[in-house]
């Protein structure tokens, strides 16, 4: 007699498998858990995995498309895709364990529009740096260093705030960072960014570990690690947005925009896609290919401007 497995019981096993066997970050695993629990919420707490059918998935897709939160917010097409990707991953896990359920290949993802990449040209980055007051205050020296470092390294904001002083070698202008999925990669720093960081660190009067610290938080704690003063991702997001506005940049600018700008700048100046993939820490080349439509347009503009066969005015 076939054994019946409750989906709710297997979700935790799957999440642990993702973290331990697949090396996914705890944040990714947490998101998958949330998406799968929403599927159980839709179907039934008593749902067994052999009861997952194409018809159930079809009704689930319709439910996701019509879903509204208590605030009346709907799920975007990309978010709906994430729910289905999580379900497909779960079914794939069941298949590996020889547990009878729906084939992962039966999960079709909705078509989504290509993601539009917002990026800054270097003159816009310079305008942001110039918008930071040059008064020698530690907080302002820190902000200049962060803007330069984000643009020159392609760091994720979570990676940036977790840096300690002893992580970064300013003489060699390179260091290792542990990114998504606990994967290490080399990060390189421009001479301008290294100079800004050195200026900032020289002005510091503390011996705390974090490379970037907060100047607005309660300073009462005394542990030497300095984690109570470590800058948060939200603080960096707020700071980047503020200086973009002060620089007169009308598009939405976030730390991730700086990462996009890093990648786009490299590609526009001739870097190959595989190298950029490595520098960004993308596990899949398709993630990096989101930048190609930007650089393709750049190449078209050059062709139209310089090719001898262009129309003569």
Q: Give the ordered list of helices and strands.
A: HHHHHHHEEHHHHHH
How many domains?
A: 2
Radius of gyration: 24 Å
The strands making up the biggest β-sheet line up spatially as 1-2
Mean pLDDT: 87
Percent strand: under 5%
How would you briefly describe this protein structure?
The chain is mostly helical and 313 residues long.
Kindly describe this structure.
- It is a single chain.
- With about 325 residues, the protein is mainly alpha-helical.
- The protein folds into 2 domains: about 5-105, Tyrosine recombinase, N-terminal domain (DNA polymerase, domain 1, Orthogonal Bundle); about 120-305, Orthogonal Bundle (hpI Integrase, Chain A).
- It has helices spanning about 5-20, 25-45, 55-65, 75-95, 120-130, 140-155, 155-160, 190-205, 235-245, 255-270, 275-280, 285-290, 290-305, and strands spanning about 175-180, 185-190.
- Strands 1-2 form a two-stranded antiparallel ribbon.
- A hairpin with a 5-residue loop joins strand 1 (about 175-180) and strand 2.
- Helix 5 runs antiparallel to helix 6, helix 5 (about 120-130) packs across helix 9 (about 235-245) and helix 6 packs across helix 10 (about 255-270).
- The longest helix is centred in the first third of the chain and has 20 residues, at about 75-95.
- The protein starts with 6 loop residues before the first helix and ends in a 7-residue tail after the last helix.
């Amino acid at each position: 007699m076939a054994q019946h497995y409750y989906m709710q019981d297997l979700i935790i096993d799957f999440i642990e498998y993702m973290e331990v066997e697949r090396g996914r970050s705890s944040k990714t695993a947490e998101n998958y858990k949330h998406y799968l629990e929403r599927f159980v919420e839709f179907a039934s707490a008593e749902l067994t995995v052999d009861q997952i059918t194409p018809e159930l998935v079809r009704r689930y897709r319709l439910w996701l498309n019509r879903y509204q939160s208590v605030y009346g917010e709907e799920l975007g097409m990309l978010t709906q895709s994430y729910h289905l990707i999580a379900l497909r991953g779960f079914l794939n896990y069941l298949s590996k364990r020889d547990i009878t359920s729906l084939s992962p290949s039966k999960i079709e993802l909705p078509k989504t529009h290509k993601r539009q990449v917002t990026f800054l040209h270097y003159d816009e980055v310079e305008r942001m740096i110039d918008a930071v007051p040059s008064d020698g205050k530690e907080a302002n020296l820190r902000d200049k260093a962060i803007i330069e470092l984000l643009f020159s390294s392609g760091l994720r904001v979570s990676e940036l705030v977790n840096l300690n002083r002893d992580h970064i070698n300013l003489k060699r202008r390179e260091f290792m960072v542990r990114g998504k999925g606990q994967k290490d990669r080399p990060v390189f720093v421009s001479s301008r960014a290294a100079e800004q960081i050195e200026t900032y660190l020289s002005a510091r009067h503390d011996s705390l570990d974090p490379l970037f610290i907060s100047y607005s938080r309660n300073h009462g704690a005394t542990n030497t690690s300095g984690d109570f003063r470590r800058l948060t991702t939200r603080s960096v997001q707020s700071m980047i947005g503020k200086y973009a506005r002060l620089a007169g940049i009308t598009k939405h600018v976030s730390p991730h925009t700086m990462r996009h700008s890093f990648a786009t700048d490299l590609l526009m100046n001739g870097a190959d896609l595989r190298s950029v993939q490595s520098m960004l820490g993308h596990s899949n080349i398709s993630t990096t290919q989101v930048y190609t439509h930007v650089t393709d347009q750049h190449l078209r503009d050059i062709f139209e401007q310089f090719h001898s066969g262009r129309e003569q005015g």
